[in-house]
Amino acid sequence: MGNKSGSEFGGIMIRTEKQLYFAGDIVQGNIYLHIIKQGFCGKEVKLTILGKEKTNWETGSGTRRRTHEGKNIFHQITVVAHTFEDDNLMVGSFIFPFKVHLSANLPGTFYYKDDVLASLTYKVIARVVSTSKSINDIKNKQVLILREPIKEIISSKQKRESSQIVSGCCIKRGTSSIEVKVEKNIYFPTEFLNFSYDIDNSNCKLDVDKVDSVLVNRLRLRSNSDSEHILEFQLNYQHHKGPQKGNKIQPIQKQDYQLQLINLKNPPQHLTPSIIGNCVNSIYYLKVQPHYEGCSCCSPRPTVKIPITVLAIPPKEYIQPLIQPENWNPQVFQPIIIQSNTQGQANALNKDLQQMSNPMKN
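Structure tokens predicted for Arrestin-like N-terminal domain-containing protein:
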């Protein structure tokens, strides 16, 4: 680490055509280099594309309080955008265009902070590498916002569960079943999730006192020591009356229900998107569960959980404008083309996908 700032000799800026991209897109931009004073030792201009996850949470209290942290650079590409002939950088202005072909397997940008931290971010970084031990690199960075393309086919989902109902710890009360159907599986925040359910309680000797319908977000964090922390948020919910013992919901009694994709505790704040990363995983599902009269806690109740995907709302584009220096007459070089190579990262994500193929198992 040098003791003199590289910015004494000039500045470097990196700018992409836009800030928001989808995985699989081509990112185009320029590196702008403006050297105002001789004396900087270095001739390599480097471009880095960086994807990084962070997690942080605490467990215990007092002397047993422990902090868990996860840091994972899951995507990194560094290339030399240009090499000057002379190690003593000349005064002048230069533009280095670039094109980066993003991998289609990259997860989207994510940020959540409230007692715990879960983030997944992307940056593009430009630097002129200093060869002097007493002078720091000249560098600049820009945040990229990445979204995952829709990989699923928009379709309705349906699931059925049945259970043997037991009360008083050992008294069998028969069987009861529930079937739930959702209109589609992909949503934007604030949309309405339309669903219906059918309960067959004709072989059960207990009334269904109520039926809970809950929109749940399950956030799973992982640390570098492989510790895991799981949070489940009940975002929105409804309660309905269920059928009595020996009965089932008749066709004429069937209803359609709606749950808005909002957090009732903080409606103005949009829901975070679904994401599957190495350290950060966020999934959503609709949970529908009947509750029976008396004490039936000794047996599992028929409970249906249907996963849904929540997409991110695109942010407003804003990239800080560049202020052109005086006497700006840059030399423009040929663009460099970068093809992302994320085979290792893709394998890691595939492993996570296999582990999370049943997101309701824990």
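The first strand starts at residue 10 and ends at 16.
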